[in-house]
Amino acid sequence: MVEPVPDKSSEKEVASGKHAQVLVVESEDLHGNDNRILALLNEAGSNFSFKGIMRRLNIHQQSLSRALHRLEEMGLVQKSEIGYQLSGTGQAMAKSQPQRGRGYIQLLQTYIPVRVRPEEIVRALVGKWFKKLRWVGLVESGSGFTLQWSSDDNSFQINLRMVSEYIVIETNAASDKEKLQAMVGSYGIYEQITRVLQDRVAGYPTQPANN
Question: Model pTM?
Fold first, then answer.
């Protein structure tokens, strides 16, 4: 009797037990870019735009499009209103992948003196470019928001963290030139935040900056 050939069309299987849920994805189903994307999105609440992923990972547009389509079909990545994020299954898959990168140094820290919802500041910053800083993505967690930009040559990154009533801007820039560029860009971000606060006090809607 000939044994039936396993169905190769199924790229993933989730097996549930009493004590754990195990995700089984055969290694050949994942390409090199797939694993890099999963590692980038490996944080609950992460949202990265298509171009943000391109800049962070330096992946060609067509290759990235194919990889995201493949990951969406496998149920590992889903598209949100503001970008791409891991699905629940994708979070389980990427959980063991380590985060890599240079250490961050603080550029600015400020107290928010005006009563304003963090979401108002986030809306004024998401998708914006500042000087040579290009928008990358947003991470929302229980403790607050983290907004991310990268330099136009992808040599360093800037994070803006909003926690409670404070804003912290940090960078992993290494050289003096990169640190100076990061500082210039961070002041552009700070200026936009100031506009939001001024508009809140004046009582009229925020006008986006043309950067």
Answer: 0.55
Helix and strand tally (H, E) in the chain? 6, 10
Q: What is the pLDDT along the chain (211 residues), one digit of tens a residue?
A: 444 444 433 333 333 333 333 333 443 455 678 878 887 887 656 789 999 899 888 888 999 999 999 888 888 889 888 899 888 777 765 554 444 456 888 898 888 888 888 889 999 999 999 988 999 998 887 767 889 999 999 899 999 988 777 888 999 999 999 999 999 999 999 999 999 999 888 875 555 555 5
Q: Tokens at residue 22, please?
A: 């195990």
Question: How many distinct structural domains can be found in the chain?
Answer: 2
CATH code of the domain in which 156 resides: 3.30.160
Residue type, 27: S
What is the distance between the alpha carbons of residues 38 and 25, in angstroms, rounded to a whole number? 13
What CATH code is carried by the domain that includes residue 38?
1.10.10.10
Q: Are residues 22 and 50 in the same domain?
A: yes
**Element spanning 108, H or E:** strand 105-111
Other CB atoms within a 10 A radius of the CB of residue 11 amount to 15
Q: How far apart (Å, rounded) are the C-alpha atoms in residues 161 and 145?
A: 6
Q: Tell me how many degrees the CA angle 110-199-125 measures, rounded to the nearest 5.
A: 60
Structure tokens that stand for 184 in this block = 């210039």
